Amino acid sequence: MSNHLIFVYGTLRKGEQHHHLLHQAVCLEENCWIQGQLFDTRWGYPALLLEKGALPVKGDLYKVTSDQLKKLDRLEGFQ
User: Fold this and answer.
1) In sequence order, what are the residues at sequence separation of 6 or more whose Cβ sits closer than 8 angstroms to the Cβ of residue 23?
2) How many angstroms separate the CA atoms of 11 and 32, rounded?
3) Domains recognised in the chain with CATH numbers
């Protein structure tokens, strides 16, 4: 089974609505930053566009399995 790195910045962060989906994932770093721009999707969660030189976006870095990633994909309607 493969592992994947994901950067979470919205409802998947600790204390947020969907964080329970990461309860078996490995948190590698909390409160880290990536350069990008957040957009309102109007679907209840933001989208991140990676962009060098843009404002920093705060989030957390996790290692997840392929099965965990599939669950996260279902949450966001990506199948």
Assistant:
1) none
2) 16
3) 3-75 (3.10.490.10)
Q: pTM (2 decimals)?
A: 0.84
> Between vectors from CA 54 to CA 15 and to CA 42, what angle results, nearest 5°?
50
Q: What percent of the chain has pLDDT over 70?
A: 96
- In the set 16, 29, 30, 76, the catalytic residue is 76
**Residue 29 falls in the annotated catalytic set:** no
| Higher local confidence (pLDDT), 54 or 63 | 63
Burial of 32 (0-12, 13-18, 19+ CB in 10 A): middle
